[in-house]
């Protein structure tokens, strides 16, 4: 297995630390699309692009979940739990807004009814609405 002959290299020795390669969303989508081609496998595509196969599986899952669309549009992807919390808060705020709108409408009707019946007196310090 081991040879003293220098002509055969068993592996590559890295002399400098390699930084993590950042792939653009378009590169990720291209790699994922390659895995969906007939006759290709995730492992072969990953090897061809020097990517860990587990990473390609993760990208495929993200692509299928639709989060890759947000990444390619330059939008931030948020966890589903955070989205659910935000949706709950929106519903609560809509409910409160509806309640306050209804209260304002009722008060407006009461004032109009009081003005029509002359129940609301205009004191000397308050100007009339028509002035």
TrEMBL record:
PANTHER family, per database record: TRANSPOSASE INSC FOR INSERTION ELEMENT IS2A-RELATED (PTHR37936)
InterPro entries listed in its UniProt record: Homeodomain-like_sf (IPR009057), Transposase_8 (IPR002514)
Protein name: Transposase
Domain of life: Bacteria
Record GO terms (molecular function): DNA binding; transposase activity
Family membership: Belongs to the transposase 8 family.
GO terms for biological process, alphabetical: DNA transposition
């Amino acid at each position: 297995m081991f040879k003293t002959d220098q002509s055969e290299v068993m592996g590559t020795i890295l002399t400098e630390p390699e930084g993590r390669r950042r792939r653009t969303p378009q590169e990720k989508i291209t790699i994922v699309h390659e895995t969906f081609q007939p006759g290709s496998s995730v492992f072969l595509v990953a090897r061809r692009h020097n990517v860990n196969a587990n990473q390609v599986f993760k990208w495929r899952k993200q692509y299928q979940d639709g989060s890759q669309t947000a990444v390619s549009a330059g939008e931030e992807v948020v966890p589903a739990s955070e989205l659910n919390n935000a949706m709950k808060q929106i519903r609560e705020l809509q409910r409160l807004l509806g309640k306050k709108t209804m209260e304002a409408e009722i008060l407006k009707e009461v004032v109009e009814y009081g003005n029509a019946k002359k129940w609301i007196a205009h004191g000397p310090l308050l100007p009339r609405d028509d002035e």
